[in-house]
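Researcher: I need the complex structure. Ligand is NAP. Inputs:
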Amino acid sequence: MNNLILIGMPGSGKTAVGRHLARVLQMSFVDTDDKIEMDSGRRIPEIFETDGEEYFRDLESACAAECAQLHNTVISTGGGMILREQNMRALADSGRIIWLNRPIEDLAHTNLSGRPLLAKDQNRIYELYAQREPLYRKYAEIMIRNRGSVSSIIARLLHMLPKHLHLAVIGDPIAHTRSPQIHQAMAAQSNLDLYYEACHVTSDEESLSAFVRRAYTQEITGFNITIPHKTAIIPYLTVIDDYAASCGAVNTVVVKNGALYGYNTDGDGFIAALARMGAEVKDKRILLLGAGGAALSICKKCSLMGAKQIAVLCRTPSKAQSMQYRGETRDEAVVIDEFTPQNMEKYAQTADIVVNATPLGMSGIQEDYTDFGFLDALPKGSVVCDIVYKPAVTSLLAACERRGIRCCNGLPMLIYQAIYAYEMFTGLTVDKQKMYEVVAQAIGE
Ligand code: NAP
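Model: Output:
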């Protein structure tokens, strides 16, 4: 079972933290004191006064036994729940016990007059603390100090609960994103509890900054980024990885200790997709069609991986010139030229790998390649990667298949870039080939 059980002194913030935690993790929430009051129809001070503490403890044990049957629930317990071992055994079997440890100095300055055991003499808090502290310590699997805001406690707690992740993808449009499905499949494979939300964040600055503020409250442990925010997110980052900076684009942000770390996993996703076809870029000549965001990530990664030449063909070479000047060490390997049938054929003659990084042939896009003559110029053994993944077989890929040219669509790149992002979010190192199969099956490919 996968409950989270909060224990701690009266006034230690279990209810506030528990409610918030449940909301962040999309879990149900139960407060045992509230449940006892609701089930019995009486207030707890009244139960203590008329029937005594032992009677209340019996109600509490019955409540613990009932709560231990719940699933996916944050259970905030009364301060004395730990007094009976049977309670803790039942609850521990249902999930993880977290001790919300509020320092006695803070408790002593809190008004606890509503608590039955402290109503007459609040100084009894010292005695209760001395009696219960060893029990909280004994039963807790995780101890977290209650210092700072509820959000900051949740943030620390989430880092101590690697089983629980809250991720998101932001973009506009976002309705058709496959990221939630892909990440859920990976989380299930690693036995992690993941809540992954698709957030519609429009291109206006306020929409993005509102999302970033939310991420900074650390309710979100990481997020993926798609069009149109891959570049716009950069000023919001605390740290940007060198490769992502050279691409001028970020597709993965990890939120850690109040800081945002930006990465770009498209390049690694592309390299892994090529490897799946048995191809690698070191010392190879690459014909890259298109010079947009995806092309730039691919170009930079191929350059880093030791490609001999990357010929980038695009409609507006002047725009693409900037690709060469973004702090890359091997930019001499990059040649930028015009996207013409003549140039396609010219560079195809020596190309080991052809990459389509334009939207040509993509579902919903009117334009497509009309002349596949350049494929006939390719040396034997060359491969073609069309990073478009919808449709699964673009007209470019169909033309390759007719000619017996080894080729793949953009799905492997999509899946591998997600696997790399997932490793960053979770800190796990996964078996990428196994994970690939899991994801491909989950998304029905
Ligand atoms: P982008 O930034 O808009 O760049 C598109 C590039 O294609 C630009 O260089 C553009 O040239 C060029 N282009 C557009 N229409 C063209 C045409 N009719 N003839 C020649 N060139 C044309 O887009 P992107 O983000 O790089 O994405 C490109 C494609 O890759 C999309 O289909 C996207 O879905 C796919 N993609 C796949 C993955 C994956 O994981 N498989 C990842 C990212 C992207 P101009 O600058 O001159 O307009």
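Model: Summary of the prediction. The pocket of NAP is lined by residues 266, 269, 290-295, 314-316, 319, 339, 357-360, 362, 367, 387-389, 410, 413-414, 417 (CB under 6 Å).
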